[in-house]
């Protein structure tokens, strides 16, 4: 039997439009850095209806090159023409522009439609973006099962962001049956491509032995890979490992280095931990002023441990002048987030001021918080303090104190 392949090839060659050469010549010109000539050639082809030339011309105007200025209006016009002719990359670009309002009013529903056209042609970026729209309920009804479907299609084509997000759905059991082993498998694929977020997510699984055997050394290695890329959460986690000696040789100076990097990238826990190192003089000089600085920055991000520590420093004058009012302010901030140490300290302060109703209420809250944490000895201490106060309170005071204790809820 004779093969028909050469015949088909001949027919295809004969069917090529005359402007196909303009497209190729433009590509060659661009490869030489002659973007002005490439623009001229692609425009000739694009005006004759060549969809690929239209898409290339749209990208050229989007990015701008030597000899060709950026032109958002022209870029959008050519990309839309290419998208209307079925070019998947142009369709994906239209979705992106409509989603973010780049050169065109934002319209999530239209963005989803363009993403779907490109996704149906197996464009991985469009599949991923369509998955995000389903995950967030933007432009389409929120549907995590549908999000997982599109993430999987993109992930199977090797898109790291989709692999990471598919892993997250498996880890959380959203849109898919919870399966941390499967989560680890997808995180590993994305992490191997150098995606810092996936490296961090994989490190967490190894750190806690979820979906994989617990391995502090492997966790540390993945945290480091992400941290070296500037991923702030990984920098903070690496600081903790150096601080505690889990998976790494304990080294307070290294802990301080990584806490500082994470703190400068906005991680509140790292700010609080760096403050604690200055407070104790571990890995850094002993410096209450510097400790207070970092505690303050962390406290302003609503971290209870930093708020409590800042309360202590204000109360006894470490790194600052004594300021009882400021101490109470920070103790109260931590206490409202159910920090039992802050609640206990407020109880003691109000007891010293003979404000027995407030003291009773705060001791009761500390008792409840310590009990919830399973810290029975501390809970018992606060129960005893509460009952001791009760013996010296009037019936009305006791009723009011119990009401405050009963109605209070942490933030």
In short:
By secondary structure, the chain is an all-alpha fold. It is 73% helix and 0% strand.
Radius of gyration: 31 Å
Total of helices: 23
Strand coverage percent? under 5%
Calculate the terminal CA-CA distance, rounded to whole Å: 79 Å
Topology as a string of helices (H) and strands (E) = HHHHHHHHHHHHHHHHHHHHHHH
Q: How many E strands? A: 0
The overall pLDDT, averaged over residues, is: 93
Morphology: elongated
Q: Any low-confidence stretches, pLDDT <50, length ≥5? A: 1-16
Reported for the largest beta sheet, the result is: none
Proportion of helical residues:
over 70%
Question: By helix and strand content, what is the structural category?
Answer: mainly alpha
Oligomer: single chain
Q: What can you tell me about this protein's structure?
A:
The chain has helices at 5-15, 20-31, 35-47, 51-63, 72-84, 88-100, 108-119, 124-136, 144-155, 160-172, 180-192, 196-208, 216-228, 232-244, 252-264, 268-280, 288-299, 304-316, 324-335, 340-352, 356-372, 376-390, 395-407. The protein is mostly helical. Helix 9 (144-155) packs antiparallel against helix 10 and helix 17 crosses helix 18. The termini are far apart.
